Amino acid sequence: MGTVSPAKKLASAIFLIGGAALLVIALILDFTGSQFALRGWMLIIGILAVLAGLYFFPSSSRHKGMINIIFLFPLLFTFAVTVIIPLVLGIFYSLTDWNGIRMTAFVGFQNYAAMFNQPSFLWSLLLTVLFVVVNMIMVNVVGFLLALLCTSRLKGIGFFRAAYFLPNLIGGIVLGYVWQFVFNNVLITLIGNGISLLSNTNTAFFAIIVVYIWQYAGYIMLIYVNGLVTVPGDVLEAAAIDGANPIMTLFRIKIPMIASTITICTFLTLTSAFKQFDVNMALTNGTGSVQNFLGKYLTNGTQMLALNIYNEAISKNNYAIGQAKAVLFFIILAIVSLVQVRISNKKEVEM
Predict the structure, then answer these.
(1) Residue 317 has what DSSP assignment?
(2) What phi and psi values does residue 95 have, to the nearest 5 degrees?
(3) What is the pLDDT of residues 243-283, one digit of tens each?
(4) Of the four, 13, 75, 241, 347, which is 20 to 30 A from 164 by CA?
(5) CA 182 remoteness from chain centre
(6) Angstrom distance (rounded) from CA 217 to CA 254
């Protein structure tokens, strides 16, 4: 190993110490509410100086690792700023009386107790679980059937693949308003009874499920198509020679061989259904009557959990309780996702 020049050592020390000092000063100015206009530039220059100091770090044996950290820094910094820091701050704010601007007191688990005393929140939680179960099954079944169709020998398969995937390219808000027009105008004209599916809580919930399947099944179809085309052709030919019919081939060869694809699709549909927001807001905005739930009359009959959190924080201006609901939402989603992946991986091994 070559020796590191004194100039390089000096440059590394200057950049590291100077950058760290600028970072500390900028953070102190920010947390103390200082109006010093250059504190943002101080933070940026401090970060760049620390990175430069790592680049000139005198330890030759660790230099490659330092370079890797520098190249990974933009991704790690973005992930920390957009995910890690908001998550930590969100957990902290859920334990305070935060009003969206400032906090004045630490209230512990008071916000969590308050949200569990809201029948509307419990209804949204129950409705979301039901929505997830139904859609996780239906989207995967429809997506898999479409994938079987799109991997058959029919003519124009490329057209069908594009057509089935197209709804996924439409934004949820736009999609919700388009289907709102369909339910409130087109279907009423076709059926002729003058009653919209969105006018009743039960049928409105069914309408949301239909729209979600229509939007998401094409995306899941493409993943299943990718899995099905990887099944070796010689295996299928051997099964046909042994007398296996299409049904036997499907259940005993194709499905076991795409077990990892099924795991991915199940995970994606589960997490996406849990986070359903835009279609729910655009289609019904969560409205709908529930006559008696825990002894209360509710007006949020089609409001799922993500929309309930949004309305609590933004519409009602209860940011602390809304943040507590968001933390619980994150915990539920994380636990369910981990359990689902673990069960699916175990099934893969069994297959």
Answers:
(1) -
(2) -100, 10
(3) 888 888 888 888 888 988 998 999 899 989 998 898 999 99
(4) 347
(5) 28
(6) 19
269/125 Cα distance (integer angstroms): 17
Q: Is 298 helix (H, G, I), strand (E, B) or coil?
A: strand
**Residue 298 β-bridge partners:** 290
Q: Residue 65 to residues 59, 62, 210, 224, 233: CA-CA distances in angstroms?
A: 10, 5, 51, 39, 45
For residue 300, the 8-state DSSP code is B
b/e map of 168-205 (b: 16 or more CB within 10 Å)? beeebeebbeebbebbeeebbeeeeeeebbbebbeebb
Contact present, 276 and 212 (Cβ < 8 Å):
yes
Domain ranges of the chain: 6-93, 113-350
List the structure tokens of 264.
């991915």
- By C-alpha distance, which of 338, 331, 337, 286 is closest to 94? 331
Q: Please, what's the largest Cα pairwise distance for the chain?
A: 87
Q: Which residues contact 200 (CB under 8 A, 6 or more apart)?
A: 288
CA dihedral 84, 326, 316, 122 (to 10 degrees): 180
* Structure tokens, 97: 């009386």
Listed residue (219, 254, 207, 249) closest to 142, CA to CA: 219
pLDDT 10s digits, 161-203: 888 888 888 877 888 888 988 888 888 777 766 678 888 888 8
User: CA nearest 294: which of 131, 125, 120?
Assistant: 120
User: For residue 198, what are its two tokens?
Assistant: 């969105």
DSSP state letters, 272-289: HHHT--HHHHHHTTT-B-
pTM (2 d.p.): 0.80
Q: How far is CA 71 from the centre of its chain?
A: 27
In CATH, what class is 113-350? Answer: mainly alpha
Q: Do 70 and 51 form a contact (C-beta atoms < 8 A)?
A: yes
E strand or H helix that includes residue 297: strand 296-298
Q: Which residues of 29-39 are buried (b: 16+ CB within 10 A; e: fewer)?
A: beeeeeeeeeb
